[in-house]
Design brief:
By secondary structure, the protein is of the alpha/beta class. It has a single domain, classed as Hypothetical Protein Ychn, Chain: A. About 40% of the residues lie in helices and about 15% in strands. The chain contains 5 helices and 5 strands; from the N terminus they run H-E-H-E-H-E-H-E-H-E. It has helices at about 1-15, 40-60, 85-95, 105-110, 125-135, and strands at about 30-35, 65-70, 100-105, 120-125, 140. A 5-stranded parallel sheet has the order 4-3-2-1-5, sandwiched between helices. Helix 2 runs parallel beside helix 3 (about 85-95). It is globular and about 45 Å long. The N and C termini lie far apart (about 45 Å).
Length: about 140
């Protein structure tokens, strides 16, 4: 029984660790992940937020930066009157330094103001342009769903 327990522990440590590509992510050289949030389907939004949580668990603290760029229909996701449980998940991710970015062009089209949007988001003029510039700056563009 003791031997089986030791084998199980070794297996968890041997297979449970992420095999990071070189150069390994560090505080000084973190991975940078940009996600496009241009949809507001509640199920898809929550799958995306779940994927962010899962990826954050794989990386050592402060070795991954995540930016979620909301534009088009995705701006609805960070509006104060969106699904309360989902907004709590977003605020929880923000506490882990996940940046949520709002598109001012979409806000102008929808006649929304900053008062309509949750606190602590970053604002840019054009969400799509922000994604383009992040990718040009070395960010990895992967939208999970």
């Amino acid at each position: 029984m003791r031997r089986l327990f030791l084998i199980l522990i070794v297996a968890v440590f041997a297979f449970g660790k992420m095999d990071f590509a070189d150069p390994k992510p560090t505080f000084d050289n973190p991975r940078k992940w940009v996600i496009k949030m241009n949809f507001n389907d509640l199920h898809r939004v929550n799958e995306t937020l779940g994927a962010i949580y899962n990826v954050l668990k794989e990386y050592p603290s402060d070795s991954l930066k995540v930016a979620v760029v909301c534009y088009g229909k995705g701006m609805r996701v960070i509006k104060r009157d969106y699904d309360k449980k989902t907004l709590q998940r977003i605020k929880s991710l923000m506490a882990y330094d996940v940046e949520f970015i709002a598109c001012k062009n979409t806000m102008a089209t929808m006649k929304w103001t900053k008062k309509d949007i949750i606190d602590d988001v970053t604002y840019v003029q054009a969400g799509i342009a922000e994604v383009i510039e992040r990718v040009a700056g070395g960010w990895i563009d992967v939208t999970p769903y």
